[in-house]
Amino acid sequence: MTPASDVLLTACRTLGVDSTGAELIRAAENTLYRLPGGVVARITRAGQFETARKEIRVSRWLQQEGIPVVEALPDLAQPIEVDGHAVTFWRELPAHREGSIQQVADVLHRIHALQPPPELQLPPLAPFVRLHQRIAEATVFGHSDREWLLEHLTDLEQRYAELPAGLPAAAVHGDAWGGNIVDTTSGPVILDLERFASGPPEWDLTSIAVDHDTFATMTAQEWATFCHQYGHDVTEWPGYPVLRAARELRKVTFAAQMATQHPQLEDQALYRLACIKGERGDRPWHWTPVP
């Protein structure tokens, strides 16, 4: 496997981007580097070139629609592929913090109201993407736990295919929360377009609802504020428990994935699994955030 730093240097040399003093920002699902001139390079895991192309298209489309979004550098033939990894280059945001409840609700409402043009080629929402792989690679779990997770995943996939009618299908962010809709001095800005898709808006709303319903990191009053600002309470929809369970499963498998790199997270991964198996009582559960 080619180190991310080597992928970065090759991409920068090819496109003529200055990589002097490249500073690692984060290495998780994707690897981010800060470059000179207010540029951020984003390196995907292998096999994500088409997803990276979509992110560039979505960024430019949202700009055209007047919705503030992280900006892909213009005048570059990006993304560029290096040893299977897609590399993209973005304008670095000014100082920012997590978006407020009202900002997240307002931005999601604006996204969901858009009519994506056919040339945008948004893929259908894939709420279970990579979960089979994550479960198979989850060394923190034993064989029986992995079997249980696969059965749980299969059940959720079937239930998702049979969701009751809800809000009209729309463009959805796919990974909505205050860390991906951030607050800057100029107002909210949308980040992380990797999961942008076409599908049920309830998926984005559930992403916020679980902070109240599953993890109790959002108070009842805060949740009521979100619902009022957006204009809809997803928890009253009959399909909500399916999407909630899917969100929870994603968080369990992400903790397991990160535990392979950071052994100190093993206990958190095991605790999360025990919760969704019904071994730690009813919701809300108090999971420690995984970086």
Could you walk me through the main structural features you see in this protein, from its secondary elements to its overall organization?
With 291 residues, the protein is α+β, with helices and mostly antiparallel strands. The chain folds into two domains: 19-92, Phosphorylase Kinase, domain 1, CATH 3.30.200; 101-276, Aminoglycoside 3'-phosphotransferase, Chain: A, domain 2, CATH 3.90.1200. Helices cover 41% and strands 14% of the residues. The protein contains nine helices and ten strands. It has helices spanning 4-15, 49-64, 101-112, 131-136, 143-161, 202-213, 220-230, 240-259, 266-276; strands at residues 23-27, 31-35, 39-43, 80-82, 85-91, 97-98, 170-172, 181-184, 187-190, 197-199. Strands 1-2-3-5-4 form a five-stranded antiparallel β-sheet. A hairpin with a 3-residue loop joins strand 2 and strand 3 (39-43). Helix 3 (101-112) runs parallel beside helix 7, helix 5 packs antiparallel against helix 8 and helix 8 runs antiparallel to helix 9 (266-276). The longest helix has 20 residues, at 240-259. It is globular, with a radius of gyration of 19 Å. The protein starts with a helix and ends in a 15-residue tail after the last helix. The model has no long low-confidence stretch (mean pLDDT 95).
